[in-house]
Amino acid sequence: MTEYQSIGKPIPRSDSREKVTGSALYVDDLRFPRMLYLKVLRAGVPHARIKSVDITKAELMEGVYKVISKDTEGLDKNLLFGTCIFDQPPLAVDKVRHAGEVVAAVIADSEKNALRAVKNIQVEFEELPHVLDPYEAIAAEAPLIHERNGQYKHLPTFVPVPDSNVFYKYHLKKGNDTEVFREADVIVEDEFEYPLMNHATIEPHGAVAYWDHAGDLHLWSSSQAPFVVREVLSDMFNLPMTKIHVNIPYLGGGFGGKSDYTIEPLLTLCARYVPGYHVKFRLTRKEVFIGTVLGRGLKGKMKIGAKKDGTLVGIEAQLYFSDGAYADTSCNVVLAAGHNCVGPYFFPNCNLQSFGIYTNTPPVGAMRGYGHPEGQFMIERLLEQLALKLGIDSHTLRRKNFLRPGDTNSLGQTISEHNGDVVECFNKMIEALTKNLLPNEDDQFFYGRGVAALVKSPVQASNAASCVFLKVNEDLTVNISIGGVEMGQGCLTVLAQIAAETLKIPVKDVRINYEINSQLTPYEWQSVASMTTMRVGNAILAACEKAVTQFKKNAALVFDCDISELSYDGKTVSRGSENIPLKDLVKGYQYEDGHAVGDPILSVGSSVVRDVTLPDLDTGQYQPYEWTFGAQGCDIRIDKTTGKIKVIHFVTALDVGKVINPDTARGQITGGVMMGIGAALKEKILFNKKGIMQTDNLRKYRIPTMTDMPEKFTCILVENPQPDGPYGARPIAEHPIIGAPPAILNAFQNATGISLLKLPISSERVLTALKQRS
Amino acid sequence: MELTITVNNREYTLEVDPKESLLFILRERLGLTGTKNGCSQGHCGACTIVLNGKAVKACLKKAKKINRANILTIEGISPEFPNKELHPIQEAFIQATAVQCGFCTSGLIMELFALLRENPSITEQGIKEALEGHLCRCTGYQPIFDASLLAQKMMRSKNSG
Ligand code: FES
Ligand code: FES
Predict the structure, then answer these.
(1) Model confidence at A452, in pLDDT bands (50, 70, 90)?
(2) Which of A291, A319, A726, B121 would suit a FRET pair with A692, their CA atoms being 20 to 30 Å apart?
(3) Looking at beta carbons, which residues of chain B come within 8 Å of A368?
(4) Using an 8 Å Cβ cutoff, are A58 and A113 in contact?
C-alpha cells in the first residue's frame, strides 16, 4: 500500500482557531461604511391576488430611504428568475403564492425604523383558495397556482403540464415497464410520507448588497453558490459579470438551504434604488422558516414484487412532491428521487413516476440527501414488509438483491467494481451492530434493531466544473484559490491535504483561500451534492501536478536536460546525485552573475464532470455521475409509557473510496445521522388551516439536541477506491442522513410489530400506535 | 438610559434603549461579533456569554437588567492568543474536531467555561444537561461531547500540575 504523508491523517481543521476564538467572520459580522437595513412585508396569506399596496405612509417615516413595491418606478413587472424554470419574481407583482412571499420592502437607517415603516404599509388582497397537499393540488378542482405554468422559459428536460399544478413529471421506464410484476409470486405495497422540513442552519440567511456609483454590484452573502448567484444576477440586471462582485465569507451551515439562490435577487433589486449605500438584509429565524426554502415534502406509493425465493422482479412507484410556490430549486430533487427510490437493489423492471407539484408553501429546494432520503425511505420500509410476507430474514433478502458489479441500476447503468461495495458495507455494519446484545423486552421498554442500505449519486449540472488557481510563494508556501464554499463541511482542510500530498509538502504550508470574490476566484458551479472533495480536489490535483512540472522545467533549463530525467521530492528537483533546492527554482532560476531563466511557479487546474447526460424525455433514462454505497443500522429503546425512542447504538458504514481525513469524515457521519434522527423522530413543518406555518421557530420546529444523541456512534469507513477521485476518494457528506429514518422505523417494527410509514414518529404517535395495537 | 458594563475586563458606559438586548449591545455597539445571533428568541444558545459568572443567553438579557454587570465573551477568554495559549476548552474543541461551521461554537465554549469553573468535576450527565439548550446542526453533538470531556480533563491536569 502507498504510504501517504497527508492523506488519511486526522489533520486538525484549518479554520478551527478562527472559529474557537470568535474571530471567523460570517456575513452578519461584516461592517461597512454607509450601511442601511432592509426589512420586508410578507404576504401573510397563502394565495391571493394583490389589489393594491399603499406605501405613502411608510415612505414618510423616520429614517426611511426607500420603499419598494410592485408600483415602484423602474421595477420590471415581467422580471422572472430561475435556473431550470423561470417562474419566480423577486418581489410579488400580481399574486402571492405563499404566506411568506415578499410584497414590499423598506430600506432605512436602522432595522428598527425599517420595521416600523413596514408595519405602516397597507396591502389589499383578493384571497384565493389555497392548497398545501400534493394529492389535493393535482385534483381537478384544485386552485391553479401558476396560470402561466407551461409558458415560462424552462430547460428542455423539465417539461411542465399546462393548466395544472404539475410543473415537472418524470417517468422512468426500465425493462418491461408495463408489466413489471409479470414474474412476481409475491407483491407488497404501501403509502408513505416524508414531511416538509427546514434545514435549520444555526446561522440565519443574510446578505449585504452595494451598488457603487460606477454601476458595479457588490454582494456579500451566506450562499453555497456564489457563481449561480452571479449568473442569476447577471441575467436579472443584464449586467456583465465583470461588474458583479459576489463575496462569500464563512457560512454557518448550508445543507442545501443556502444553495442556488434565496434572498439575493430581492435584496439586490431593492439596493439598486439606493446606490452608494451598503444595504444589509438579515433574516430573523421566523423568516428563515417562512421566507427561504424548505426541504423534502413527499407523499407517495410504492409497490414491489419478488419471486418466492426473494429475487426482486419489479418496482412501481409514484412520488408526489409538494414543492411550494416556485419550482426552480426542486426540479432536480424530483428527478433524483424518481430514479433513486429503488435503493441499492437490482430490479429488472421499473415503472417509476415522480411529480413536482406547485403548492402554497415556501418553495422547496435542495436539502442534504436531495431526493435520496425520500425514495429510499420507501424502499427500505417496503423491503421489510416483503421479507415478512416471504418469510425470509430481511438481511438475507437485502443481501440477495444488492446491486453487484455487472448489474444494471434503474437507469440501466452497469455497476462496476469501482463504484464501491454495498455488500461489504452491509456486512461490516451488521458485524458492528451485532457485537452488542439487544436486550429483551421488559416492563418499561421495547428494544428493536433495524437496518437499511443506501446509494447516492451527486445530482449536478451535467457540465458542473471546479476551477482553481495555485501560486507557490517565494518561501515555498502555497496559496490555492477555490470557488468552493467552506460551510462547515471541512473542505479547506481536506483540500489542503490533497494539495500537500501531491506537492509532497507539509499541510501547514498550504493555504486554501476561503475568501471568495467572483472577480478574483475561479469558477465553481456550486458547493452542493457532496462534490467538493472530489471535484475541487481533482482540480487541485491537476494544478499541483502542473506546478511540479513547472519546477522540473525550470530545473531542466539549468541541468540542460529533458524533464523526464528529473525527479521532484517536495524539497528539491534532482538529476541523479545533483539537485537544486526548490527555493532556487520558485521564481525561475537565477545564476550567480544575476541572469535568470525559467518562470515563477503559478498554475491552474480544473475538473469538469464528464459523461453525464440529460434524461431522455420518453424513458427517463440518463447517465448521472458515479455512485456511493453504504449501510446503516441501529438499536433503539422504546419507552412504553412515554413513547419516547432512544437510539442506543447507531452504525454507519460508507464506502468512501479513500478517506482523506478520518476526523472530518466522521464528523460528516455523526452530523448526518443526527439530522436523520431528527427526520425520524422530531421534525415536521406544520401549517394551520389558513395556510400559515405554525412551526416557525426553533422551539416549535424541534431539531435534535444533545440528549437525542445515540448512546454510541460507530462509523466505519470502507475503502474501495474511486479511480477518478482524488487519491480514490468519493462523495460521502450527505449520505449518512439517508438510511437513518428507515433503519429506525424498521427497528420500531421489529420491536413492536407495528409498521409506521409516515415520518416523523414522535412520542405521541408512538403512544397512539401502541394503544391501537393492544 | 446610561448603561455601565464591564466586558472582557474593560468598562464601557453607553447610552442605550433599556429594551435593547445584551446581544445587540455586544454585536452592534461594541463590535464583539464573536457572540452569534442564531434566533434572538432564546432557542438556540449561539449567543451564550458569561454574565457575573453564569452562562446566559445574551439575546434574552435586556439592557435595563444588566447595569454594572461583569460580562465575558468568547473574545475575552484567550485575549492574548496567539501570543499566549488558548483556553483549554478552545484547545479541546480543536483537538476533538468539535467545530464544523462554527456558528454554535462560541456559545458552547462560554457555556462550558461557566460550567467547568463552577463545577470542575461535573458528571457526563451534567454536561449533557448543561449543553441541552445549545443547538448544533452540523456535528451531531458527539464531537462536542468528546471535546467537553477532553476540556474537563485538560483543565483538571492543568490545575493539579
Ligand atoms: S440567539 Fe440567543 S438563544 Fe438564539
Ligand atoms: S458547528 Fe455548525 S451549528 Fe454547530
Answers:
(1) very high
(2) A319
(3) none
(4) no
Separation of first and last alpha carbons in chain A: 58
- The DSSP string of A113-175 is HHHHHHTT-EEEEEE------HHHHTSTTSPPS-TTTTTS-B-TT----TTSSEEEEEEEEES
State the virtual CA torsion across A356, A358, A359, A364 in degrees, nearest 10: 60
CATH level 2 (architecture), domain A32-128+205-282: Alpha-Beta Complex (3.90)
Are both B84 and B146 inside the same structural domain? yes
Going by C-beta distance under 8 Å and a sequence separation of 6 or more, which residues neighbour residue A499?
A470, A478, A480, A510, A512, A540, A544
Q: Cβ(B143) to ligand 1 under 6 A?
A: no
pLDDT tens track for A50-96: 999 999 999 999 999 999 999 999 999 999 998 899 999 999 999 99
First to last CA, chain B: 47
B88 and B153, same domain (yes or no): yes
E strand intervals along B39-129: 48-51, 54-57, 70-72
For residue B61, report the distance from its CA to the centre of ligand 1, in Å: 11
Q: Which domain holds residue B106?
A: 78-160
**CA A743 distance to own-chain centroid:** 22
CA angle A726, A732, A734 (to 5 degrees): 140
| Sequence letter at residue A49 | R
pLDDT tens across A743-767, in order? 999 999 999 999 999 999 999 999 9
- Output the CA–CA distances (angstroms, integers) from residue B85 to A173, B72, B79, B89, in the order listed: 62, 18, 9, 11
pLDDT reported for residue B9: 97
Q: Are the C-beta atoms of A192 and A174 separated by less than 8 Å?
A: no
B88 in ligand 1 pocket by Cβ < 6 Å? no
Closest CA to A604 of A554, A542, A552, A549: A542
CA angle B79, B102, B50 (to 5 degrees): 50
Looking at the domain covering A295-460+613-773, what would its CATH class be? alpha beta
| CA distance to partner chain B, nearest, from residue A591 (Å) | 40
Peptide bond preceding A723: is omega within 30 degrees of 0, i.e. cis?
A: no
**Global confidence as pTM:** 0.97
Q: Do A670 and B142 touch (CB under 8 A)?
A: yes
Instruction: Ligand 1, residue B45: give the atom nearest the CA.
Output: 3
Q: Tell if the CB–CB gap between B139 and A672 is shorter than 8 Å.
A: no
Distance in angstroms (rounded) separating the CA atoms of residues A319 and B122 = 50
- Predicted pLDDT at A463: 86
A387, A749 Cβ separation under 8 angstroms: no
CATH of the domain at B25: 3.10.20.30
Name the closest-CA residue to atom 4, ligand 2.
B136
Average pLDDT over residues A494-509: 98
The pLDDT assigned to A612 comes to: 85
Per DSSP (E only), the strands in A640-772 are 645-655, 712-718
Among residues B26, B50, B76, the one where a domain terminates is: B76
What per-residue confidence (pLDDT) applies to B161?
Answer: 55
Is the Cβ–Cβ distance between A667 and A731 less than 8 Å?
Answer: no
Instruction: Give A162's contacts (C-beta < 8 A, 6+ positions apart).
Output: A149, A150, A151
For residue A707, give the C-alpha cell: 440528549
Flag whether the ipTM exceeds 0.95: yes
**Length of chain B in residues, anyone?**
161
Total residue count of chain A as it appears in this document: 774
Say yes or no: CB of residue B59 within 6 Å of ligand 1.
yes
Residues 6+ apart with CB under 8 A from A139: none
The predicted structure's pLDDT at residue A392:
97
HSE (side-chain half, CA atoms, 13 Å) at A654: 31
Measured CA to CA, the distance from residue A401 to residue A320 in angstroms comes to: 26
Query: How far apart, in whole angstroms, are the C-alpha atoms of residue B81 and residue B75?
Result: 10
